[in-house]
Design a protein that fits this description.
The chain has 426 residues and is mainly α. The chain has 16 helices and 4 strands. The protein folds into 2 domains: 2-43 and 219-422, no CATH class; 51-201, abc type-2 transporter like fold (3-Layer(aba) Sandwich).
Length: 426
């Protein structure tokens, strides 16, 4: 026990001297967590709270276009800026490139006339089918002239589709209202009362959004809940920069040879490194979680809500840290130089994070990548954390994520032992 304690103190001294490694292990993940969370939270607010700037050019003077404009304003998704009807598409494009707006809508001059003609034709056909009208169905004046939707290239396709969906809903509401008015007037020869119109048009089924969680809570996860676990894992695995270099340095300066002349074993030194850096990974998790709880609210970011199963959170963090430390030692054993250890370690962590779902959600990856995703230990780490933070689960609910992670960790340990024996280091 004394030898192990002395070795741990030695590794702690080496660790405190590695300023670059400490930056990679603590400063970089904290900065990434703050920046990425702030960026993603702004995106969430853009979709959910903030309004998208929109230029609206109404070249029509009729009632239907006014109803469409009012409907677009009531959607609550757009910050509508009305522009002169004389503005051309080129002028609107110029304003959009100057970042005045991300979207522009041009309502054609004969929009109301064509909407009314289309509504009258549809109402006549409907009444004839019911046998309530015997005169000839009015001929359709032609298809509706499309509304032009200009968008800035920075808008992604998924966001454009959501905007198009909102605009289609408003357009459909205007068309339905015109058809309803035409049918009512044909039957009663009077205008549709506003009270009845509102009752019919606004009588829609309500959609109740409920996030699925294991503990039955209905708390909606925020950007912090998604990002803090991901970048905590990223920080844990980046101990490869410091730990991998430390192992290589001891190989190159002859520490292994000197250990063979002493009444000890290098496995003891490896155990010391695992214990030391395992505490480092737990400290990383504690610091990043604490920042999410106490610092994020002061920065205007959502607060991190810890899961109810705190012992389960500790066990998951412990296993994730052990896997990260095992991977770092494995890289150090097989690398020939510190440059190799740093390069291979950093690149491999980024690749494992990419295919593991930290950089891109795993559900958004192609089907061909799904088997590869399960080979990344970071994937199982992230799934275990998400099971606690997002799904409200407990330790027993994420065992199917922890067991593969333990299997990968043991496999890495065995590969490390094979490398040590092959190099005659133990």
């Amino acid at each position: 026990m004394y030898k192990l304690w002395a070795t741990i103190l030695k590794d702690l001294q080496i660790l405190t001297r590695d300023k670059v490694g400490l930056v990679f292990m603590f400063v970089m993940p904290i900065v990434l967590a703050i920046v990425i969370t702030a960026t993603q939270n702004s995106t969430f607010e853009l979709v959910n709270k903030n309004k998208v700037p929109l230029l609206l050019c109404n070249k029509d003077k009729g009632e239907a276009s006014k109803q469409l404009v009012n409907a677009i304003e009531k959607v609550g998704m757009f910050d509508v800026k009305k522009v002169s009807a004389e503005q051309t598409e080129q002028q609107l494009s110029g304003r959009m490139h100057e970042k005045d707006a991300l979207i522009a809508i041009i309502i054609p001059p004969d929009f109301s006339a064509r909407i009314e003609a289309k509504a009258n034709a549809t109402a006549s056909k409907a009444l004839n089918n019911f046998g309530l009208q015997t005169d000839t169905v009015k001929a359709d004046t032609g298809s509706l002239q499309p509304i032009s939707l200009l968008y800035h290239p920075v808008l992604q396709e998924s966001f454009r589709q959501s905007i198009q969906g909102a605009l289609r809903s408003t357009l459909q509401m205007v068309q339905s209202k015109q058809v309803l008015k035409s049918i009512y007037y044909s039957l009663n020869e009077t205008e549709l009362p506003d009270s009845l119109e509102g009752e019919i048009i606004n009588n829609q089924a309500v959609i109740n959004e409920i996030p699925i969680s294991r503990d039955g809570s209905k708390t909606i996860p925020n950007a912090t809940q998604h990002n803090i676990p991901a970048w905590t894992i990223f920080a844990m695995f980046f101990v490869v920069i410091s730990l991998g270099s430390s192992v290589v340095r001891e190989k190159l300066n002859g520490s292994f040879v000197r250990l063979k002349t002493l009444p000890t074993n290098y496995l003891l030194a490896l155990l010391s490194k695992q214990i030391t850096y395992l505490f480092v990974t737990l400290a990383q998790a504690a610091i990043i979680f604490a920042i999410g709880i106490w610092i994020f609210p002061s920065l205007g970011l959502p607060k991190l809500n810890l899961p109810a199963d705190l012992p389960g959170l500790f066990i998951v963090s412990f296993i994730c840290g052990w896997c990260a430390v095992s991977f770092a030692i494995c890289v150090g054993v097989f690398a020939q130089t510190q440059e190799q250890a740093n390069g291979i370690g950093a690149v491999s962590i980024v690749l494992l994070a990419a295919i593991g779902g930290l950089l891109v959600p795993s559900f958004a990856m192609p089907v061909s990548f799904q088997p590869i995703i399960k080979l990344s230990p970071l994937h199982w780490c992230l799934e275990a954390y998400y099971g606690l933070f997002l799904e409200g689960g407990k330790l027993k609910d994420i065992l199917l994520n922890i067991l593969p992670l333990l299997g990968i960790t043991i496999l890495i340990q065995l590969i490390t032992l094979y490398g040590l024996k092959r190099k005659n280091l133990i």
